[in-house]
Amino acid sequence: MKHNLLKIGLGLLLLAAITAFFALDLQQYTTLDYIKSQQNSLQEYYSDNKLLMLAIFGGIYVAVTALSLPAATILTLLAGALFGFPVGLLMVSFASTIGATLAFLMARTLLGSQIQEKYNKNLVKINEGFKKEGAFYLFALRLVPAFPFFIVNLVMGLLPIRTLTFYWVSQIGMLPGTAVYVFAGTKLADINSLADIASPSILLSFALLGLFPIIAKKILTALRTRS
Asked: Which end of the chain, N or C, is less surrounded by CB atoms within 10 Å?
């Protein structure tokens, strides 16, 4: 009874949060144009209130990823623009993984047991295979974003993978992609005119964004061949 009440309460809270995000048109604050328009103000606030700004930003990032809201990419770029590469990478790496794990746990709590019970016979082979190589499959999905970030979180919540395994594999697997986007954010912060786009550092950041999926696939192929 308590478990059912928990699921109902969690489901209602999740629905209310997602509905509020779109009903209040909060996505207007997650566009590149808006972020750049507020960049100077945010950087001034960060200069005067470093710890508070990091705490607020981290909390927002965790909430966005936990609720599967479409704002993670722009927040990652913003982290690079505001905090620089080392701090931005550290912030996003942990905040995104914590948020992803919360989304994973919510999916497991709301739907995981029901799916496994209802389709137990159909999922036997999938479950067995996933218990053996689930960490590798998750690593592949994290390293090569073939599926949207939030879908991976939700689907993994329905499969037999331990929470701790989900966390550390996600942290490692998402790190290269996070680094690329945070680095791009540090360079996008320098774009004030069309001429700025031609600078070597900014061209490099866009090149990395384009080459990352190709490089990731090569890495996975090499790992798979050796295993």
From this structure: N
> Rounded CA gap, 71 and 149, in Å?
11
Contact residues for 225 (Cβ-Cβ < 8 A; gap 6+): none
Domain assignments of the chain as residue spans, ordered by start = 2-226
Asked if the model's pLDDT at residue 117 lies above 60, the reply is: no
Dig out the tokens for 64 from the structure.
């966005």
- Using alpha carbons, select from 148, 132, 141 the residue that is nearest to residue 169: 141
Determine the Cα–Cα distance for residues 132 and 159; give it in Å rounded to an integer.
12
Sequence-ordered alpha helix ranges (H) in the chain: 2-23, 32-37, 39-48, 50-66, 72-83, 85-107, 113-118, 124-143, 149-156, 163-188, 200-226
CA distance linking residue 94 with residue 216, whole number of Å = 21
Highest mean pLDDT among 43-47, 58-62, 141-145: 58-62
Query: What sign has the CA pseudo-torsion 112, 117, 120, 124?
Result: positive
State how far the Cα of 141 lies from the Cα of 135, in Å rounded to an integer.
10
pTM of the model: 0.76
pLDDT of residue 212: 62
